[in-house]
Amino acid sequence: MGASDLIFKNAAALRNNMTPAEMLLWGHLKGSQLGSKFRRQHPLGIYIADFYCHQHKIVIELDGSIHNLAKVAKNDIERQLNIETDGIKVLRFKNEEIFNQLEKVLNTIKEAIGSPFRGRGGLTKRIIPCLDVKDGRTVKGVNFVDLRDAGDPVELAWNYSRQGADELVFLDITATHERRKTMVELVKAVARQINIPFTIGGGINEIADADALLNAGADKISINSAAVRNPELIDQLAKAFGVQFVVVAVDTRLIDGFNIVHLNGGRIPTEKETLHWIMEAESRGAGEILLTSMDHDGTKGGFDNYLLKLVNDSVNIPVIASGGAGSVQHFVEVFEQTNVDAALAASVFHYGEILIPDLKRVLKRNNIEVREV
Predict the structure, then answer these.
(1) Whose CA is closest to 268, among 126, 144, 133?
(2) Is 251 a catalytic residue?
(3) pLDDT tens figures, 46-83
(4) Which of 108, 208, 245, 317 has fewest C-beta within 10 Å?
(5) Confidence (pTM)
(6) Greatest distance between any 2 Cα atoms in the chain
(7) Which of 50, 166, 209, 251 is catalytic?
């Protein structure tokens, strides 16, 4: 990352002058004990990371008491944001955590190593087609109503994979009693056809639901209404499968000037304010947020960039923008104005109004990094 000779020289000196906390953690990181190689006091541009894993793009910083000073804390935040902008995830621990909660620290590092998620503001942005599934068919409506058929989900998945989609999301919008059997068969069929990650959601209420879908081949599971009704479900899923598998979907609508979480496909308003709920979900173990603005959904008038920026600036996990995509420019704007990790859309992809290769070429022309098609 362009580190100067002076930075390398300073890093070498720091390696010979490790703090007690650094020495203790290094004893568990060196020699690829966690399955990945870490370097200590490693240059990254104008910075020196306490520990760095190149394979997974993870920085680990240990903070002593000096980091409680306002000036130092402000510098830490600026430094972390700059590092995250380059697509690197930053883990921070206090020295006391290393001495008193070492096992918890090591488990956090292990989860980060195993996570497919990039951190907030990651370098490569993701394009994600969403397939709402009802009775085995892909459907699409406006503001979650007036549904019309959009094709076979397995065929669409195969086509999107060939076009260069980065991921797919499948949402069962009916969640009938026969859902688990039906969706498991869909997951198996999709997994046989594509080689990109995909998320499955709709009607997941317990560990057994998620277990069946993940075992069938899904990469992640998405929970929405069930999480709002039983927030501990997030904790349970994160503990059982790891945060990297848990996506919390949030449907929101403006009511009297406040963004309010809605349930059951957007039909039932709650008393939860959207940002507060998302921050709680993150604290409970959500690995990613899929945020849909119902006021924008299906209108093709653009994403809710104000809300998306507010949320993305408030959390440290990836945010997927959803609701309102109608043109290529809308994707450019959502990445430029909010710095979310991914943008999701449905009808503009399903009906061929936007082709993913064309979209990615425009994004690259606007200096927005995307995976090559």
Answers:
(1) 144
(2) yes
(3) 888 899 987 778 899 998 887 788 887 888 788 888 77
(4) 208
(5) 0.67
(6) 67
(7) 251
